[in-house]
Structures are given as C-alpha cells and as structure tokens.
Amino acid sequence: MKSNVSSTQIFYHLLDLSEIEQQCYIDELKRLQPDLYRKIQPLLSANTMDNGNLTELFGYHAQQAVTDDVCFSQLLIDKYKIQDEIGRGGMGIVYAAERCDDTFEQHLAIKFIQPSLTQVLGKAFLFQEAQLLARLNHPYVAKVFDGGEHQGYVYIVMEKVEGQTLRQVIGSKSLRLRQKLQLFIKICQAISHAHQNQILHADIKPENVLIDDTFAPKVLDFNITQKQQLSPSDTTAILAFSKYFASPEQKNGTYLTNQSDIFSLGKLLLFMIGDQHTHSLLKSDLHCVIHKATQHQPDKRYASVIEFMTDIEHILAKRPISLKSHLPFYVARKLIQRRPVSLALSASLVLSAVLFSVALVQKNHQLEQEKTIAENMMFEVTSLLFHSKGDVNKFMSVQTMLELTRRRILSNPDLPQHIKQKMLLAMMTPVPAKRQVKQDCQPNCKQHSLEKVTQ
C-alpha cells in the first residue's frame, strides 16, 4: 500500500472493490497507516450522514461483510435453477442459471442486487430500470429477460455470455490497432443503441465488456443505480463507478448526460490502444479524437456517440475526421492515402496530356515560323526575278544577283539562326558541272546515212 496516496484517491479506490475487499482494505489501512485511516474517516462519515444506508451499501462494516456470505447456489427460484456463482461485487452477486419450466431451454445469468441498495433506491425504481434495460435489443448488448424478488433481493435475469473481459483480451492477445478500433466501433454501436432508448450505461470499463468466441463484444452491467439527473435537494445519489473511466461530473455527483458515457468511451479507447501506440499517435487523428471525447467540460465533447464512432470509422477508412475536415492540405493528403494507385495513374495521364499539349504547341509554333520564312524567301526570289527585267540589272550577272538575294535573306532578323546556317551551307556548296555528251557515230552509221541520202 502506497503511503503517498491521498484520502480522496483511497475513497474512490474503495468504490471499485467488492464489499469483502473493501473491508479488508480498510482493516489493513487502519493497522498499517492509522494517520491515513483517520483522514478517510470524515469521507466515510459524511456519506453516512447524507444517507444512512450508504455505508451499508459499500460494505464498510464488518457485520455487513458477514451477511454477504449468503449463497443461492442450487436453489430453485421461480422458474430458474440457480447454479454456480459467476461474480460478486458492491452491487450484488451474479450466478449462472438455467430455465427449468419445461418450455424453453436457456442458459442464463441472474444478478441479485444487495438488499441495502434496494432500501436506498426502492424496489419500484430497480424494477423500472430493469424494465428499461429489457427494451434494449442489440447484438452487442447483453439481453435482459426477466426480473423478480427473493428474500429481500431484487434479481435480474440476463443473457449469459461466454467469453473473456475486454481487459483480459487486450492483455493476453496481440491485437493489431485496426482490430482494436473495429472492436471499439462495435462497443460504440451498443452504447449508441442504449442512448437512443434514453438509457445511460454510467459504468463503462473493460470489466463490463465481454468478448465472445466470435470476437464480438457484449456490453453488460448497466449502472441502474445512477440517476441521469439529480435535483438540488436529492441526497440519495450513489457514486458507483470506476475512478479511471468515470467522467468528472460523475465523480462530482452531478447529473449525467450522454457526454458522460462518451468520456468513458474515450478513456476506454485510450486503454485499448495501449502505451505502444500512444507515443506514436500524439499528433495523429486518433489522439485528436480521444482528446475531443475526454474534454473536462461536457459541452466540448462529441455531441453523440455516433459522431465519435464516425470519426473512428473515418480513421480506419483513411478519410478526414470531422475535427480536421476544414484543412485543405489534410483532406488532400487523406485522399492520396486512400487511393494512391488510382491517383498515381490519374496524375500520369494528366502529366502526359500536358506534355503532349506543350509539344503540339511548340510544333505548331515551329510550323508557323517556317511558313513565314518560306513566304519571305519566296518574296525575295520573286522580287529578284521581277527586278532582273529592268535596264538597271540588264548587265548584272546571275552570280551577283544571287549574292544580293543571299544577303537580303540573311539580313532578315526574323530568320532563325539554324535556318541561316543551313542556307549559308547550301549557298557555299559549288554546283557540279554538267557533263557534255558527245555522239561518236560508227562507220556503219555513216554508211547507213549516206545510203539514205542517195536514195
């Protein structure tokens, strides 16, 4: 037991323990740290003054711990045969049971609520809350079938879920982050269904989520003792919750809303992703989502579980979350992450089209330029032929006229340099002399000609 723990922390720690564990903890505290025990006594006394039955409810007296030794195993209560005990806590005791009225064969779980809790809240309230739970019909919520009373214990008949708690699954299996988020989305779907039926869970924690063989969650143990809204004169508020997962308003005993469950879901998600992901996701979408869900002020959290769950789905689908959807570069980056192959192909096509268009424009410009040059050259040649008919150029040699034309063409500033070079090369190349063909007539040819003349 740590000596630097405050009295308030010890008080909240007691709320998470069963009644027997609470009494053992207090006895050990009194024996080992009497000073700290004296500090916590005012908290216990204050709650006893506010509600005379609250001390009995959480089992601070040794006498109450003795009465908890009650056992219902192997009893036949109504139409249910009670079997072995499954679990025990501050709220009550849970047993496995089966229906034995020769109509249906069902394997069930029956939760017996502490009589002291019944005295505080009343049977009518407990049955009313149990009736609300029976309205829930969701594959990820443990179904409530029936209820009743036996020897001062109000009991609730529920679906029996075979599986491990979420804490056991997270601790024993090496799950990928994607698997954890997919599991968390299913838990959100269950809580959202409860909210749509005006029911809060008010005690979301890993122990209250069972995972079956198909890796599907079952949310159970709705806190039927936690009222959603308290009047200022209400002194029967019961602070039954887990300290780490409870919202600030629940710890303070104020009224609860859907945002209280959203806070607990944010804490549950932080527990599920574990420390190995926390540091790498400090600036990621997941961290932003958890930070939004666990704001101290309820009005700063998500407005509904659906909004919270939608952002988690967007993270899995690599889509923009609602908290960053106004950032254009972020949205573009998400689009690239979501469709890298198709965007790469599209970018390649666009780049090819741009390059092809640029090449066409350049080629067209070159053709237009060459057309202009050809027109200028034709004009110069035409001018040369026209002026050669005059008296001035009568005695000018052809070589001189070509030289004048060459100079006029090359002095044209619009003529590209590579064209000028080609023209100079062509003009400097000497024209090969034409060969003269000599006819060498044979003697017989001369004779043949003479005969023709004679004839």
Characterize the structure shown.
This protein has 455 residues and is an alpha+beta fold. It folds into four domains: 7-67, no CATH class; 70-160, Phosphorylase Kinase, domain 1 (2-Layer Sandwich); 182-338, Orthogonal Bundle (Transferase(Phosphotransferase), domain 1); 366-427, no CATH class. Helices cover 52% and strands 11% of the residues. The chain has helices at residues 7-15, 19-32, 34-50, 54-58, 62-67, 115-121, 123-134, 166-172, 177-196, 248-251, 258-273, 275-278, 285-293, 305-316, 328-338, 340-387, 398-410, 417-428, 443-454; strands spanning 76-77, 80-88, 92-99, 107-113, 144-150, 153-159, 164-165, 209-211, 217-219. The strands form two sheets. It has a six-stranded antiparallel β-sheet. A hairpin with a 5-residue loop joins β8 (209-211) and β9. The longest helix is centred in the last third of the chain and has 48 residues, at 340-387. It is rod-shaped, with a radius of gyration of 48 Å. Residues 47-67 and 228-237 have low confidence and may be disordered.
Q: What is the residue-mean pLDDT, rounded to a whole number?
A: 77
Helix count equals 19
Rg, nearest Å: 48 Å
By CATH's scheme, which homologous superfamily of the largest domain applies? Answer: Transferase(Phosphotransferase) domain 1
Which residues sit in consecutive blocks of at least 5 with pLDDT less than 50?
47-67, 228-237
Q: Report the top-level CATH class of the largest domain.
A: Mainly Alpha
The order of strands across the largest sheet is 1-2-3-4-6-5
Q: Tell me what the CATH architecture of the largest domain is.
A: Orthogonal Bundle
Task: Characterize the largest beta sheet: strand count, sense, and whether it forms a barrel.
Answer: 6 strands, antiparallel
Instruction: Kindly report the CATH topology of the largest domain.
Output: Transferase(Phosphotransferase), domain 1
The helix content is 40-55%
What series of H and E elements makes up the topology? HHHHHEEEEHHEEEHHEEHHHHHHHHHH
Report the β-strand fraction as a percent range. Answer: 5-15%
Number of strands: 9
Query: Which class of secondary structure composition applies to the elements?
Result: alpha+beta
What is the distance, rounded to the nearest whole angstrom, between the alpha carbons of the first and last residues?
153 Å
Shape: rod-shaped
